[in-house]
Amino acid sequence: MYQNRIVKPVRKTRDDGKERQAAIIETAGKLIAKQGYDKTTSKQICQELGINLAAVNYHFDSREKLYLEVLRQVYTYLLSVTELNELEEKNLTAEEKIEKLLNLLENAVKQESNWKIRVWLREILSPSEFAKKIVTEEVLPKLNLMLRIFSEYTNRPANDPKTFALMIGAFAPFFWMLLFQREEVSAIREVIPVNYEKEKILAEIKNFVLTGLKQFKA
After folding, report:
1. Is there a contact between 24 and 50 (Cβ–Cβ < 8 Å)?
2. Where are the alpha helices (DSSP H) in the chain?
3. Confidence (pTM)
């Protein structure tokens, strides 16, 4: 006869520390997007989550290092190095690669209410003391990858000023659209003598940029 055995349920392991870190970053990002880094305290972040005040220092060592993690999340969300590497290596024409880059920018404008977009805009308009560090670590590798794509398209060196100017010119209209979405300029949107339909304007901007790039190449 078989003996009855008590089988204990297997507990699923879970990395609660990483989940807590992710929750702190998300909450901090939303608060910073709304009121800025200077006005966002560790106490406020912990109160929003209902956790101990020491949690920020425990997981990130300091509020400053927490903000650096928020910024890394922002720049990874906007465009990851992995995505750019994959785009560069794909069997696509240079024009197709640039069009995909513009699609990413177009999607960013459509999601301007996302806290990551709003934190990024705050850094663009009023760079924090962390700007240099995060630009060196997160932005420069992506900038170099994008310059290589535009270099391939123009048949000019990546370090040619014209290549850089062309890239800035292609991206600038989308950045202006992001700025135009800010609550601070809502009064201006109400009085401009244009039928403000964001989807149609974005389509026209993309068409305008692609046409200009073709003219430059010709």
Report:
1. no
2. 16-35, 42-49, 55-60, 63-78, 81-89, 94-110, 115-125, 131-134, 140-154, 161-180, 186-191, 198-217
3. 0.74
**DSSP H or E run through 181:** none
**Per mean pLDDT, which range of 52-66, 110-124, 197-211 is the poorest?**
110-124
CA distance linking residue 129 with residue 203, whole number of Å: 36
Give the long-range contacts of residues 163-170, CB within 8 A, separation 24 or more. Answer: 166/213, 166/216, 169/209, 169/212, 170/98, 170/102, 170/209, 170/212, 170/213
- How far is it, in rounded angstroms, from Cα 193 to Cα 69? 41
pLDDT tens digits for range 74-128 = 888 877 777 788 887 788 888 899 998 898 888 888 876 689 888 988 888 888 8
pLDDT digits over 63-80, tens only? 999 999 999 988 888 777
> What is the rounded average pLDDT for all residues in the chain?
85
Instruction: Give me the residue label for tokens 């009855």.
Output: 4
3-state secondary structure of 51: coil
Q: What is the DSSP letter of 135?
A: I
CA atoms within 13 A on the CB side of 98: 26
* Cα separation, 72 vs 170, whole angstroms: 24
Kindly state the percentage of the chain with pLDDT values over 90.
40
